[in-house]
């Protein structure tokens, strides 16, 4: 039997084995939102659609080492295009249309994508954006690919199929612009193999699972974890446009889902709703997989809904190379425990001087694979940023930027983030991204952005601002609106507070820890302007 080398190889194997089974399904609510005529594909039906797409892309000159931007939201066709492009040796750049023009422009330009394929509703907007980029890649509707401008190969070198780039995802860095994580076919294949073989509460029946997820395909969970586990086991992927708390239980039951994926905000929002007879999912959902559940919600959720929330830790950069999951008992529910290190994963917890911390102490989590290749199954590196890649792999260990503690039995517990990153509803937000935008407003003399606790979202963005204007709500609203016009909505500060000064070190660096504590106190005391009700996506 030939070993799978690409994502498409895994899919093709399931087509041969599970052709008549459901491959991807979109629930009625999401189908209505997307105005879809076809919302359910078997593996055989999807294979025929993909073959047609392959012919169209081939006619447009797409081949090995071409990078294509996809603006298809969470529609089922996203996965069909991904598989078609993967079969040709091309890579994808999933783009979030909710981003502001300048954010989309940066990713399109930096990634050097040769073509952008989008839902027809977004073509005109994207055409205007690419006009201001040096390469000015063509933008085509997803049903008009064959007529696209012929594409020349991208600049990155061809590698063997397994090592070849399959996708690039942009993550918020702590300095400068977002960084493009290069994800190989090996990255995807390793995730599918690792996740489906975890054991304990996490188990997959070949050809029998139905995996429901509301998470965005611009993140590695939906793009790689749920998708690869589905095609590897011949299971059905039930993809929603987003999380709808009011109809979630009904959608889960009507879709006959057996596995659900979540982010920490989901349990919080479901628990906030009035209890109903639809709550109990015991006997249908085998397990829920995710991360970031608030400790005070964990046990309550499991009792009310009859579903075990399996907490895990991983990053886009680590993939299956460093992935820790609390899938076996004891899970230490309600403690932020995410399990023990699996076999083959080496781990260290170090202090700010790089020295190992004692058992029970908090330190930065460093990880690597045991053996000759410590970077096995991790991301391939940051695109066009070898310096940042080597920095994060300093001294042979991947530096996660997360503060973690380990108990005497080897269980790991999340403590905090050491990087200047805010984790809001599963989105990583670099403080510097928000600060750089705020500093462009004429009323902002200086500022610092920090996370503050949020009952639903984990963290919310708070901005402490020294202003040159009046310290009133009108000024604050003007600054907030400016941020909303220049950042994707979730990055805009939910809270804005005016301060006299911002504490800095002798070398003029912001004292981040002090700012974080100060922001928490100000927000808790009600001294900040609250703009959370106005944080909504603009289309």
What report would you give on this structure?
An eight-stranded mixed β-sheet has the order 2-1-10-9-11-12-13-14, sandwiched between helices. A five-stranded antiparallel β-sheet has the order 15-20-19-17-16, with no helix packed on it. A four-stranded parallel β-sheet has the order 4-3-5-6, sandwiched between helices. The longest helix is centred in the first third of the chain and has 17 residues, at 43-59. It has 539 residues and is an alpha/beta fold. It is built from 15 helices and 26 strands. β12 (287-291), α11 (295-305) and β13 (309-313) form a beta-alpha-beta unit.
Tell me the layout of helices and strands.
Blueprint: H1 7-18, E1 22-25, H2 28-34, E2 40-42, H3 43-59, E3 67-71, H4 76-87, E4 91-94, H5 101-111, E5 115-118, H6 123-130, E6 138-141, E7 165-171, E8 179-184, H7 185-196, E9 210-213, H8 220-233, E10 236-239, H9 248-255, E11 259-263, H10 265-272, E12 287-291, H11 295-305, E13 309-313, E14 324-325, E15 337-339, E16 345-350, E17 362-369, E18 381-382, H12 386-392, E19 398-406, E20 412-417, E21 421-424, E22 427-430, H13 431-438, E23 444-454, E24 458-467, H14 473-486, E25 495-498, H15 512-524, E26 529-530
Parallel strand pairs: 1-10, 3-4, 3-5, 5-6, 9-10, 9-11, 11-12, 12-13, 24-25
Antiparallel strand pairs: 1-2, 7-8, 8-18, 13-14, 15-20, 16-17, 17-19, 19-20, 21-22, 23-24, 25-26
Helix pairs in contact: 1-4, 1-8, 3-4, 7-8, 10-11
Name the features.
30% helix, five-stranded antiparallel β-sheet, alpha/beta, single chain
